[in-house]
Write a structure and sequence with these properties.
about 55% helix; N-(1-d-carboxylethyl)-l-norvaline Dehydrogenase, domain 2; 14 strands; 7-stranded mixed β-sheet; Rossmann fold; alpha/beta; 4 domains; 5-stranded parallel β-sheet; about 625 residues
Length: about 625
């Protein structure tokens, strides 16, 4: 006979649901808590978390009873069963004779429920230890308990009867799509997957993906769009993980014949924010919801927990926000690195800017590496050690992976020395520059990083130019002489790069009426994404207290910049004199000098514009807003 084990942390409703399920199936109900020895109940009553040795006798007793229940008429058991080793110990009967039903929700939801319970021996303060202990099963039925008891029971019975439908469908099984699908499944979100089938191009992608991951989850897979859409709950939630641009429009077009009012499409790719605004408007006319959700973290992030930046209507976010938060990374407080960024294109704009800052940070690290490698003649291993030391302070993901890169060997040499120095890009950095031009915001460091990649791509011309001009790069310093000053220059460049990026977000928020919460954006960038760092952790509070000012106007930031600026100036000057290009650091210097100059050179520009084009100018001896024109040839 079948034994149904309803499992999960305290407060998910195991007892309530277990009793209802037992009644529905005509079976006896048992609560595993009733099998605890008195000493265990006393410990939990006093707020003392149980250890594994405390559970040994309890698990043995349960396993023995499960064996008896299975031999007789079956049963429903409510049991925490948080660890896989506990579940293995309870598996005293053939696997096919136990059905695991995993009830789950977010920590805050469950904690609120526990706090409302009276006179129960399990104290709410023990909940965190249960969440920390929990190892989610990769099998059984995963049921989210955020809904009503009736909804939860309906979901369980539908699964038991084999006619349940998935709440989420995912289209596009590239690297990110596959990882995100696995993330959803392992977090208890049922998901159907679709990938087109094109002979000799994309053959059995969905089928093979499902087969390869059978041990993780029994993915309903499709290469027929109509059958895929039929497999989803109504109204449907469909995540697109396809290349930005025309491909997104083509997929939406293929979905159109099967869409119904209130269906929701979520574009999880790196689409341009203006395309997202357009698509949302077009689909809204048909009663279809649309969200643009930036997802950062690469393959590993998508699999284990990315930073997610969804933009769209409140209605859309209320529908799937819980799912997105479930699969997102967690910040240091355990909160999801996912937030409703704002309306229409806000999510994809924020992701675009994230990538722009990423371009800047990558270029910054590359310049430090290049100067150490060829200016100070340091080996990759020496540079790795320097970066590792820097990262004790910076706690930067990009610095962390750079250490690994520099230590990677191949054929008795360092792999980094064999990689062609021609960088690629997918466009988001350039989009940031274009957006800054449209909004009238200086974007010096990010633009410099984009252009540095462009010139790196001209490898053949650069090689020919060396033959014409000669190699003017000179070893000009030692590692010992440069290391401390370079670190301070690096820190200054990073701060300025972040300040420039957040300044663009601030202006976009005003111009598009998005009401972006910059502090919250910094928070969701503290884990799961590529630009996570100690600086980002600090920006949460700095932006909370000064949300409408350039970061360089913050007193704490100003104090640091004043300390680092002499080193930044010196490093850039010496490097350029020695023939080493420093596009990111030099742009940071120029931005800082321009930003801190009360008198700029722009008065000459205004005079020139008025001279040849009668564009007018304002005067320092008159009120702002008054404009003047001069006949410059009239003496």
């Amino acid at each position: 006979m079948q034994v149904y084990i309803v499992m999960g942390v305290s407060g998910v409703g195991k007892t309530t649901i277990g009793k209802l399920l037992a009644e529905e199936l005509g079976l006896k109900f048992y609560d595993a808590d009733d099998f605890h020895p008195g000493i265990n109940r006393e410990k939990m009553k006093n707020g003392i978390a149980l250890k594994d040795e405390d559970r040994e006798e309890w698990l043995e007793t349960l396993a023995s009873n499960i064996l008896e229940w299975e031999k007789n008429s079956g049963a429903v058991l409510a049991c925490s069963a948080l660890k896989e080793e506990y579940r293995k110990q309870l598996q005293s009967v053939p696997k096919q004779n136990i059905t695991w039903i995993f009830l789950h929700s977010e920590y805050d939801v469950i904690h609120k429920r526990l706090s409302a319970r009276k006179d129960h021996y399990f104290k709410p303060e023990l909940l965190r230890s249960q969440f920390d202990t929990l190892e989610m099963p990769k099998y059984g039925f995963h049921i989210n308990v955020d809904g009503s008891v009736e909804e939860i029971m309906a979901a369980i019975l539908a699964k038991l009867q084999g006619n349940s439908k998935a709440p989420v469908g995912l289209v596009g099984l590239g690297v990110m799509g596959k990882s995100l699908a696995i993330n959803l499944a392992t977090k208890g979100v049922d998901v159907s997957v679709f990938n087109r089938h094109v002979e000799e191009l994309e053959v059995d992608i969905a089928k093979n993906f499902a087969a390869e991951n059978k041990s993780i989850y029994d993915f309903p897979w499709f290469d027929n769009m109509e059958k895929f859409m039929t497999s989803l709950e109504r109204p449907r939630n469909i995540i697109l993980m396809v290349n930005a641009g025309p491909a997104v429009d083509l997929v939406i077009e293929s979905l159109q014949p099967f869409l119904n009012e209130d269906d929701l499409i979520i574009d999880g790719g790196n689409s341009h924010y203006k395309d997202t605004i357009r698509r949302e408007k077009e689909l809204k006319k048909q009663g279809i919801l649309f969200m643009g959700a930036g997802i950062s973290g690469g393959e590993e992030g998508a699999r284990k927990g990315p930073s997610i930046m969804p933009g769209g209507s409140d209605e859309a976010y209320n529908r799937v926000g819980g799912i997105l938060e479930t699969i997102a990374a967690r910040d240091k407080n355990g909160d999801p690195c996912c937030t409703h960024v704002g309306p229409n294109g806000a999510g994809h704009f924020v992701k675009m800017l994230h990538n722009g800052v990423e371009y800047g940070e990558m270029q910054l690290i590359s310049e430090a590496y290049h100067l150490l490698r060829f200016g100070a003649k340091a080996s990759p291993e020496e540079i790795a050690s320097i970066f590792e030391n820097w990262n004790r302070d910076m706690k930067s993901f990009l610095l962390e992976i750079s250490v690994d890169i520099l230590r990677k060997r191949e054929d008795n040499g360092f792999l980094i020395d064999k990689i062609l120095d021609a960088a690629k890009q997918k466009g988001t950095g350039g989009w940031s520059t274009n957006a800054a031009l449209e909004l009238g915001v200086p974007l010096d460091t990010i633009t410099a990083a984009v252009l540095a990649r462009n010139i790196s791509g001209k490898k053949q011309e650069r090689t020919q130019a060396v033959e014409m001009y000669g190699n003017n790069q000179q070893a000009f310093t030692s590692v010992e002489e440069i290391s401390e000053g370079l670190f301070n220059a690096f820190k200054a460049g990073s701060i300025i790069n972040h300040a420039i990026g957040f300044d663009l977000l601030l202006e976009a928020s005003k111009s598009y009426n998005w009401n972006l919460n910059l502090s919250e954006i910094a928070r969701i960038w503290t884990n799961g994404c590529i630009i996570r760092s100690q600086l980002m952790e600090e920006l949460i509070e700095l932006l909370k207290h000064s949300p409408s000012k350039n970061l360089l106007m913050n007193k704490e930031i100003s104090k640091r910049i004043k300390e680092y600026q002499p080193h930044l100036n010196q490093i850039v000057g010496n490097a350029i004199n020695a023939g080493f290009p420093m596009p990111l650091m030099s742009s940071a210097v120029n931005y800082l000098h321009s930003f801190t100059s009360a008198q700029s050179s722009a008065n000459m520009i205004q005079a020139q514009r008025d001279y040849f084009g009668a564009h007018t100018y304002e005067r320092t001896d008159k009120a702002r807003g008054e404009f003047f024109h001069t006949d410059w040839l009239d003496n």
